[in-house]
Amino acid sequence: MPTLGALADILSALAFLGYGGVTLWLLARPRERMAALMPAPRWLAIVAAATMAWSASLYVFAPGASQVLVAQTLRDMAILGWLAATFWPKPAAMAGAQRLIFRLLVTISGISLVAGLIAHWRSAVASAWLGPSLAVSTMLVAIGGLLVIDSGVRRASAGLRTPVMAVAGGFAMLWGYELNVQLIGAMTGRAATTLIHLLPAVALAILPTFVIAAMDIGRERMRLSRPAAVRTLILLGAALYLVLIGLSGAVARQLGGDYGDLAQGVFLTLALGAGGLLLLSARARAWLSVMISKHFFEHRYDYRAEWMRFTATLAQGDGEDDRNLHRRAARALAELTGSPGALLMLPDPLGAFRVSDHWHWPAGIDEGAELPLRSAFMLQETRHIVDLDAERRGEKGEQDLAIPGWLLADPRAWVVVPVLHFHRMIAVVVLHRPPVSRALDWEDLDVLRIAGQQAASYLAESHSQAALSEAKRFDEFNRRFAFIMHDIKNLASQLSLLASNAERHADKPAFRADMIETLKISSRRLSDLLVRLSPRERGPSADAVRTLIEPLMRDVAAEVRTRRALFVGCQAGLAAWGDAGSIRQVVQHLVSNAIDASAEDTPVQLIAVAENGRVRIDVIDQGAGMTRAFVRDELFKPFVSTKEGGFGLGAFEALQLAQAMGGSIEVASEPGKGSNFTFWLPLAEARADAGTPTGKVA
């Protein structure tokens, strides 16, 4: 097993090779590229070369020797030069105290270097005073160097890349380690041999920072996420606890007795008490979160994590209470600021805002409490986020927002957030006071303002969807009514023609029988129209049954026989799969249009056959015909009609009904040559062969 000295030699050799390679690599890189990455690229190469020389001295003379301290002085001077060139590229930017510290450190390092070189040059073994003097010099330089790094990092933390800051952190770690070694030796009177032999390991630990700082990575500032930072703080706290409990035990054992066990027991009890307080107390956790955000982070909010959680809460929520979008919006704004609850107020018809919903707001709020019209108007115009504590103190600012008394009187109310969408306030959210109350700052106001706008977009979209759904219901009713009006017009024409003929043929028994039959048909059609107007009407596809086509065609022919002779031909036993009333309506519309388009002496044909597993119903006329453009662009478009006083809904409704039953309508027409409308329907036998029950026969 290798001894500690042998391990130190191995580590020193590795450090020498590593820093030698880094030095050559840094010198070989283009000057312009290095200058674009960091303020003082050549100084970093000088520091690497000086650290290489120091590593060589560790290998040759063993850690802790006076020769190593001389080489360490040379390394410290190089580090000081890099710090000055990186954080204070212009000497005038350095404050008077910083300039004084720099000069003292450089002077101490220079004197130590010269004295050490002279002492070793004059004699093979350094004088007895050299070791203690170099040790004191090392401590002074380490202390001053740590102060310089702290000052430089705080001054330039907003502008330099994180890898450069990591190099400074590595130097701070190195100086802190060396200061600890020298302090232990000075306080105990004995050298910390183990720590001294581990100096090469510390040098190797900071070697990667040289490489990272000079590579084309990290151009943007890198940051630990808040969860990682909090876990790091927890680990550091645990490590500090272990160190303290160990030190207390060591001190107590030096005093004698059982004080060591007592001290460790006291520390354990305090740690368990502190852990239990953080676990059980929401107020303690909130206080710790505020302290960490205030003292460890540049910004109060972890914007990426908060925005992802905010958006996820608005989008879907994760509980029984989150099905309501209004409640989710209140919850999202509350969780963003650490508030335990929220009220949501919506406008009433008169413009005032009333409490509509809440998330985890304690009992005791009047559900009818309102924000008056004047206050709502002021919030909408000023877009002001109201700190109710400031209002209670009388700090109203330039404009009086007319906050109602019930809201100011409730100490739980903390902040009023107007939820604005394009300068229109669609809701108001009142946030509950958090466990650890604090004053709002500019960051809180900006976050709440932007979050309110995003929540407003979700609420506005929800309101638009509700309005669209209502408009669709009205549109559906209007469409049904328009179809009904179209069919009533046809019935009115038929009844008018019947009344006109009755004046001339009322004395004929055959005409009276035909008139009674026509009236029965018209009455049945009117009843069907009323059923269709009902919102509970079932669709044609739901009412589909096996429907015989021949009786249906005879009924249609009987209805139109007073207007025109109609040639009817149907395959025997032909049955379609569909709603009988819808099929009759489509065929009747097609036949009626064909009659209207034909001359009085021109017959209209209605033919039905089975073809390729479907029912084909053709309505053929020899009328004026239509152009292909008209058929393609206008024939089936609603509210477009070539008839004077027509609604333009017949063809559109016929196509809708056909498609609802799984059928279609095809048109073949040419101007001057008439038209052929083909109505396709599923064949009932084909449905039976496919395993679909055919049900009753219509």
UniProtKB/TrEMBL annotation:
GO molecular function, one term: kinase activity
Short name of one Pfam family: GAF
Keywords from the named record: Kinase, Membrane, Transferase, Transmembrane, Transmembrane helix
InterPro entries per record: GAF (IPR003018), GAF-like_dom_sf (IPR029016), HATPase_C_sf (IPR036890), HATPase_dom (IPR003594), His_kinase_dom (IPR005467), Sig_transdc_His_kin-like_C (IPR004358), XrtA/PrsK (IPR014265)
Transmembrane region(s): 6-28, 40-62, 100-121, 127-148, 160-177, 197-217, 229-250, 262-282
Catalytic activity: ATP + protein L-histidine = ADP + protein N-phospho-L-histidine
Family annotation (SMART domains): HATPase_c (SM00387)
Residues of the Histidine kinase domain: 483-685
Record-listed E.C. numbers: 2.7.13.3
Enzyme class, spelled out: transferase
NCBIfam families: PEP_his_kin
Protein name: histidine kinase
